[in-house]
Amino acid sequence: MCAAIACAYVIFGMAGFGTALVASPVLACLMPVAQIVPLLALMDCSASALNLLRDGRNADRAELRRVLPWLLAGSLAGAALLLKLRADLLPPLLGLFVSGYALWSLAGKRPAARFTPRAALPFGLFGGVCSAMFGSGGFLYAIYLSGRLGKDAMRVTQSTLIGASTLTRLLLFLAAGVYAGAALLKLALALAPAMMLGLWAGRRITLGLSREQFLRMVNLVVLASGVALLARWLLRLA
């Protein structure tokens, strides 16, 4: 678990999101899937707080006003689905999600044209659902913002959305009593050193490797993890 968390936060240290895509397939083999998202929400909240405090004021406020209401609505829907869905449905959904994201990233897809402001609705809504259910909707926000903003404004606005999304998930799970017991809190505390190591390594790696090269390698690992999770589920059915 420490190795999975450390690798996940290497990605976070470089890209600002993506921890669930790396850590979840491994953690799913070691703990109940329904507990993974609340655990990562707790850890992501502390990891993203610094970025939010440092860059939040420079974000594109108009885009935040467009996306945030739909992000919050999607988070409510996703949290309800996560708490109500049958547990045996979550592993294949998670496997399909991370595999689909990895294939999309490896294909190098980019928006063909500038998005209209109305695109904030589907991207914000489904990003919120994915954030609550799988712990990562960041790639959907990135698709939308890359079709609306320049590179620098996109980076800051994306960081702010990730911070808001993480805080929203944390509050929703807190209200639902997910953190009523001490088990998840103790686990998050035990994994905190691995998280800090990963954040430090992510910053160091960016000095010698381009972000695009590193994320391409990571997406191959994510794809393999998602396929392995689906294969494990199919073997159980057989």
TrEMBL record:
Pfam annotation, one family: TauE
Subcellular location: Cell membrane
Keyword Transmembrane helix carried by entry: yes
Transmembrane spans: 33-53, 65-83, 89-107, 119-144, 170-202, 214-235
InterPro entries: TM_pro_TauE-like, TSUP
Name of this chain's protein: Probable membrane transporter protein
Membrane topology of the entry: Multi-pass membrane protein
Protein family according to the UniProt entry: Belongs to the 4-toluene sulfonate uptake permease (TSUP) (TC 2.A.102) family.
Keyword list, A-Z: Cell membrane, Membrane, Transmembrane, Transmembrane helix, Transport
